[in-house]
Structures are given as structure tokens and as C-alpha cells.
Amino acid sequence: MFKCTSKLMLTALLLAFCFNANAVSRILLLGDSLSASYGMKQNQGWVYLLNQQLKTNNAGYEIINASISGETTAGGLSRLPGILSKEKFDYLLIELGGNDGLRGFPADLIKNNLLQIIGLAKAEGIKVHLMAIRIPPNYGPRYNKLFEQVFVDVSQQAQVPLMPFFLNTVAIDTNNMQSDGIHPNVKAQPLIVDIMAEATANMIKGS
User: Fold this and answer.
1) What is the DSSP string of 64-85?
2) Of 16, 37, 51, 182, which one has the greatest count of Cβ atoms within 10 A?
3) 3-class SS at 86?
4) Complete domains list, the chain, with CATH
5) pLDDT, tens digit, for every residue of 68-114?
6) Which CA distances in Å does 97 have to 16, 77, 110?
């Protein structure tokens, strides 16, 4: 009886090990139009293209895209509890704030919303990464400085890694942008894939 039980326990442990070894980490991306394939088909956007690459390479993780065009930090905050109640995630990548900045929302409001989003995720044991966001310079140096400082302050206060804005090198070439000068075009998506492939790989390694 003891030998049989031991064999069963060993088999169960081996199965559990194999299951965990093949488990795929899930990154929830809470973003706006920059990650929601704005102005193009969903299968042309960087998130879809990156997930295809990750699957082909057996990377061991995938991105679940919860980005919506026009989303603000307040919108992300209101949606997050419902998202977390339905599925389990290992990481949260926050790509929000651009629409807040374009509408001239107060820096303190943006900061408070981001801190609450991070708090909700941490309460579920989710590792959080925050992406820095930039807006066009025509909003004035004072507001731009206050806006960009929000992400530095939130990162430090919440003790979460701050990732560089993923369009820093993409947006400087107008050939990569749609006519509005804000959203990357189809041509730019593979460039963003390269940037975010490295960024997400570092997320996983860093954990």
C-alpha cells in the first residue's frame, strides 16, 4: 500500500512539474489607442504581431490586450476590477495617460488614478510595470514637465518599474505616423514589436 501511494505521489509531482514548466505567463496590457490598433485592422497592430512572434518562439508568455481607443486613467481604473474578477494575470503593463494629457487633466488627478490602478493589481498579487508617456510639445513646457514627472513620481511612490515611452524612437520619423501625428501607422507596427519584445522579455526576466 505504501509503495503504491508513493508511486502515485511521484506521478502527481511529475505532472505538476510538467504543467508548471509549460505554463504561460499572462501580461495584461491596460492601454489606449496606441495599443488598440487605431486606424488599422486588429491583426496589423503591434500587440497581435508580438503575440504571434511570442507563440512561434515559445516565449512562455503572452499579452492580453485590454486597450481601448480614447481610454483615460480614470477609465482604466473603472474597468480594471471587472477585468481582474474574470481572469488571472501575472503582470500588468499600464500604458495610459496620453488622453489625460491631451485633455489637459491635472497632474495630481492622473497620478492618483495610476496609483489606484497599481494598488488594485498589487492586491491581486500581480507584478506591475508602468510605461512613461509623452504628449506633443504644443501643450507648453510647464504642463509637459508636470505631466512627464507624474510617471516618475508614481513609479517611485508605488515602487514599480518605469518603462520608457515605446514611441520615443518611432515618432521622430513622420513616415511612421498617421496623418494626425499622434498614432503610429501600419509601417511602424513591426518597429514597435521589436521595442516591446525586448521590454516584455525584460519584464519576465526581472521577475
Assistant:
1) EE---TT--HHHHHHHHHHHHH
2) 37
3) helix
4) 24-206 (3.40.50.1110)
5) 999 999 999 999 999 999 999 999 999 999 999 999 999 999 999 99
6) 41, 11, 7
Write down the catalytic residue from 37, 67, 129, 183: 183
Strand 127-131 relative to strand 91-95, pairing: parallel
Is 25 an annotated catalytic residue? Answer: no
Instruction: Answer yes or no: 183 catalytic.
Output: yes
Which residue has cell 517611485? 156
Of 25, 32, 33, 153, which is the active-site residue?
33
Entry pTM: 0.88
At 3, which amino acid appears?
A: K
% helix, strand, coil for the chain, step of 5: 55, 15, 30
